[in-house]
């Protein structure tokens, strides 16, 4: 007679470690953890965590496609690490909502990012980049430029102008410092899981203070717009669209909480990817003088000494490919997580309901299976018409939840990068060490310190 235990089907799982993986193993060096799993266990692996999660990590384009295209009914963002980290700050906006709520929000906000609307902001982006280049060119030669902080402040200034129609230049550094505090806290775990860890508790005390600062600024900007109305001249900002938006089914406007969540999501997500892409691109320019010279020669040929404009971008192919290659080597979003809604299968392996399924752009972007000499900086990869194979390049995710603001981010990054390279020369500050740090986004662990001098064009 068969016992109840022997009649239960044992899940058919992919290879992986037999021991329970601790949080310390992952947090010590998350990038190495992800890379080593792909190297040791192949395109799909399984491990268990101390929190009781069953985790499946995949690293082939076919499986990545299957997960990202599956939709919320099969693999959801609900109750993933991103959800736990971001929802307390952002509320249930486009980045953190699920199911029908997410579909409704996507339908409302998608028109805001149409190409012709986004391109209206090109002159303001160039003006902000020219102003930053001017500040850097007159900076003291005895002190480094904190490029990562300044680029974060610039990206916040631009996104606030585009989304809110407001000038954040006066609070950009303070806002950026608050954003850094939020990122640090969200990347050090949940204090409920480690109630006695003073580091985690300290980070979350800073998180609460930073969140209050960010909330006050965003609320002030929304209230000011409601009271004063939109500017009479200039491009229509995205907050105006949100205030006028109506639910297609009910005709109702966004509630105060929905409006706050959408604005917070767009401000936070809208600046972070761009700032990090620019930070890593300038770092790579300091490490590859030959490419830097080619970039400046392209800009001199196409633009000369006038300000970079929207019409120049199609002819600045090398500038664009440098940004694309920097996001390959240092993808701002380094891991993407989903949860299995039902009992499922991937590559013939059982994936029980509730399992965590992860895709790592860091691993995909540095795999020799898809990229020749994957650890080398080679912008020419992106100069061909073919481009990378589908689902091997994921700087903005993929599938239905691909980043809605990617067109704006790419436009801004190209204009700012070309403007800074046109006007300045960069070197890494002596003895400054750069290592990638996997927090909420991928950033230089010690920031980016540069020595900067004005460039004399031929």
Overall SS class: alpha+beta
In what range is the share of β-strand residues?
5-15%
Low-confidence stretches: 1-7
CATH superfamily: Cytochrome P450
Main beta sheet = 5 strands, mixed
Outline = globular
CATH level-1 class: Mainly Alpha
Strand order, sheet with most strands:
1-2-8-5-3
Q: What is the count of DSSP helices, taking H or I runs of 4+ residues?
A: 17
Cα-atom radius of gyration: 23 Å
Task: Kindly report the average pLDDT value.
Answer: 86
Please tell me the CATH architecture by its name: Orthogonal Bundle
And the CATH topology?
A: Cytochrome p450
Name a few traits of the molecule.
alpha+beta, single chain, five-stranded mixed beta sheet, three-stranded antiparallel beta sheet
Describe this structure in words.
- The protein is an alpha+beta fold and 458 residues long.
- It has one domain (14-453): Cytochrome p450 (Orthogonal Bundle).
- 49% of the residues lie in helices and 10% in strands.
- The longest helix is centred in the middle third of the chain and has 32 residues, at 256-287.
- It is globular.
């Amino acid at each position: 007679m068969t016992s109840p235990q022997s009649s239960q089907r044992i899940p058919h799982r992919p290879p992986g470690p037999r021991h329970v993986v601790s949080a310390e193993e992952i947090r010590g060096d998350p990038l190495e953890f992800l890379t080593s799993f792909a190297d040791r266990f192949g395109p799909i692996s399984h491990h268990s965590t101390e929190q009781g999660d069953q985790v499946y990590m995949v690293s082939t384009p076919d499986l990545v496609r299957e997960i990202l295209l599956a939709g919320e009914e099969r693999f959801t963002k609900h109750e993933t690490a991103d959800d736990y980290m971001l929802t307390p700050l952002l509320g249930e906006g486009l980045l953190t909502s699920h199911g029908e709520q997410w579909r409704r929000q996507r339908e409302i906000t998608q028109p805001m990012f149409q190409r012709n609307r986004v391109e209206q902001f090109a002159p303001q982006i160039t003006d902000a980049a020219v102003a930053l280049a001017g500040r850097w060119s007159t900076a003291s030669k005895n002190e480094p430029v904190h490029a990562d902080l300044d680029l974060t402040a610039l990206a916040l200034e631009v996104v606030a102008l585009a989304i809110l129609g407001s000038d954040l230049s006066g609070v950009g550094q303070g806002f950026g410092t608050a954003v850094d505090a939020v990122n640090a806290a969200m990347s050090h775990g949940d204090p409920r899981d480690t109630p006695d860890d003073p580091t985690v508790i300290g980070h979350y005390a800073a998180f609460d203070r930073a969140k209050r600062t960010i909330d006050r600024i965003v609320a002030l900007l929304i209230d000011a717009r409601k009271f004063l109305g939109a500017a009479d001249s200039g491009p229509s900002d995205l907050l105006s669209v949100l205030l006028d938006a109506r639910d297609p089914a009910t005709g109702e406007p966004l509630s105060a909480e929905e409006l706050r969540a959408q604005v917070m999501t767009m401000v936070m997500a809208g600046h972070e990817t761009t700032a990090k892409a620019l930070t890593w691109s300038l770092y790579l320019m300091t490490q590859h003088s030959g490419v830097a010279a080619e970039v400046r020669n392209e800009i001199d040929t196409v633009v000369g000494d006038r300000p970079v404009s929207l019409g120049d971008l199609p002819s600045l192919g090398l500038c664009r490919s440098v940004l694309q290659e920097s996001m390959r080597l240092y993808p701002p979003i380094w891991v993407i997580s989903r949860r299995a809604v039902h009992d499922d299968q991937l590559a013939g392996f059982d994936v029980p309901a509730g399992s965590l399924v992860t895709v790592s752009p860091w691993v995909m972007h540095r795999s020799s299976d898809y990229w020749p000499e994957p650890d080398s900086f080679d912008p020419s990869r992106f100069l061909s018409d073919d481009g990378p194979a589908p689902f091997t390049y994921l700087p903005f995710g993929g599938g239905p939840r691909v980043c809605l603001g990617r067109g704006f981010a790419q436009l801004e990054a190209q204009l700012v990068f070309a403007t800074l390279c046109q006007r300045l020369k960069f070197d890494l500050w002596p003895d400054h060490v750069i290592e990638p740090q996997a927090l909420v986004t991928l950033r230089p662990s010690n920031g980016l310190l540069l020595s900067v001098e004005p460039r004399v064009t031929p």
